[in-house]
Amino acid sequence: MLAEPEVLQTAGAKRFFGYWNNLPKDGVVPDRSDFSPAGIASLMPAVTLLEIVSEDLILQRLAGTAICRVMGFDPTGMNALDLISPATRPDYLDLIHKQISTPCGRWNILRSRHDNMVDRAEVLTLPMHHRLSGHWMILSYFAALDPVAYDPGPYEILGYEDTRWIDIGAGVPD
Predict the structure, then answer these.
(1) Along the 174 residues of the chain, how does pLDDT read in single tens digits?
(2) Which of 3, 10, 89, 117 has a CA between 20 and 30 Å from the CA of residue 125?
């Protein structure tokens, strides 16, 4: 059992980590088959699940209702890379690659635009493996923090203010 990371700011992120931490592990990560949305039902509106198919395809497998409301649409089935600004995409792919190369948790303060506002969110992402497909998956919890600016335009992830790696037993990227 891992200690709760000190960097977590919100009660929801702490509960999300606790749930993931208690899942059975094959090595340092749980298998997708052990994840049950019912286990974190009250958090599910703010949860996403991504499947890393290739460098060019990261499938949005699940998006909670609060996520869909903020985005203004349901991204389930879409390529998550299409939701990230072109300027931020290389950084995002680098974060994903690092997270699955050295299986670890990732904590971010994320900036995104929706409803013509730029806001900040605490995001906790934790890896899982999907034994049936052989793909890595990323389970994430989003906790809204505060709006920071007016910026007309469609939903888009604009970038990261802060990133911290969380050691889950395999170390952390350099």
Answers:
(1) 899 999 999 999 999 999 999 999 989 999 999 999 999 999 999 999 999 999 999 999 999 999 998 888 999 999 999 988 888 899 999 999 999 999 999 999 988 888 888 888 899 999 999 999 999 999 999 998 777 788 888 888 888 889 999 999 999 998
(2) 117
> What's the rounded Cα separation, in Å, for the pair 47 and 41?
10
The whole-model pTM stands at 0.90
Q: How far is 172 from 165, CA to CA, in rounded Å? A: 6
Beta bridge partners of 63: 48
Residue partners of 80: CB distance under 8 A and separation at least 6: 50, 58, 59, 60
